[in-house]
Specification:
This protein has 4 helices and 2 strands, in the order αββααα. It is mostly helical.
Amino acid sequence: MFVARIIDAVMKSPNWPRTVLFFTYDEHGGFYDHVPPPKACPPDDLQPTLESEDVPGKFDRFRVRVPMIAISPYAKKHYVSHNVYDHTSILRFVQARFNLPALTARDANARPPMDMFDFEQPQFVKPPVLPRAIEDPRFLNQCEDTTRTHYTDEAATGQ
């Protein structure tokens, strides 16, 4: 419901005709992904600071995939991109739009998600009417119980 409220507010805004809202996650939530993370351009020459018990690694690989949704009058209808993006792809999109320089080698080499848009023929100049998000109290209570149990178990075990 929170996301629905934000999207609804953006679409009702007078700025809607020139807006893009990227909706993504900062992590995958612990779910298995059958696609191994691809190699990435290191952001700079700095190496990670690792402790003796850490797994060796560098900043040269992406992590598990997370969803990203582009909400805009220019977003392609029913489109699913099959390109590899990362969080700096959003930064690269802004840099390309406003002709700004890159901050690191990672965003300089990131692919901006331009394929998600049709800037010649916007599909949603008049925002679509979204169905009302409905909360199912049984599901909501189940989620709250699961979350409460998870964090209580973590506190008890120190994990």
